[in-house]
Design goal:
CATH class of the largest domain: Alpha Beta
Number of strands: 9
Strand content: 35-45%
Shape: globular
Bound molecules: zinc ion
CATH architecture of the largest domain: Roll
CATH topology of the largest domain: 2,3-Dihydroxybiphenyl 1,2-Dioxygenase, domain 1
Number of domains: 2
Helix content: 25-40%
Largest sheet: 9 strands, mixed
Structural class: alpha+beta
Amino acid sequence: MSNDGRYIKHMAFAVRDAHAALKRYQDFIGVGHDAKVQDYPKSRNRVAQFWVGDVEYQLCQSLDEGGRFDTWIKERGYEGLHHICYAVPNIDQALADAQAKGATLKECSACKVTGSHVHPEGWVAFLEQETGGIEIEMMQVYTPEQLEEYKAVKGI
Ligand SMILES: [Zn+2]
């Protein structure tokens, strides 16, 4: 069966300590040795990023109490899979199709924007609805030309 160009862009896990969580992946599973751990001042997150096969993992730690991932962990009492980002070929079409089936859009907690908007790797949007308790993010990944345009506009 074709997935019409849809695939997992990344899986984001809410963790208390990105470095400690990463060490477990390295020690117990043997992945993540080439991970990049970065702080994002805008979203106030620390993220350990690495790939398992073709799937990007993001271990996300809030830098502040009351942050997106801190709140999520406190509400549930455990760390876990916070959201899966699905790459879609056309985000406007994907959102229109989902909305036609009853989906509603959720505000991006980092940008405070609802619906499709620019992120560093592509246009993203979040849905209010979940699959199996996992938040849904969609991303139309930039083409190399669109990425250059994004960088030019952002001055990076
Ligand atoms: Zn955003």
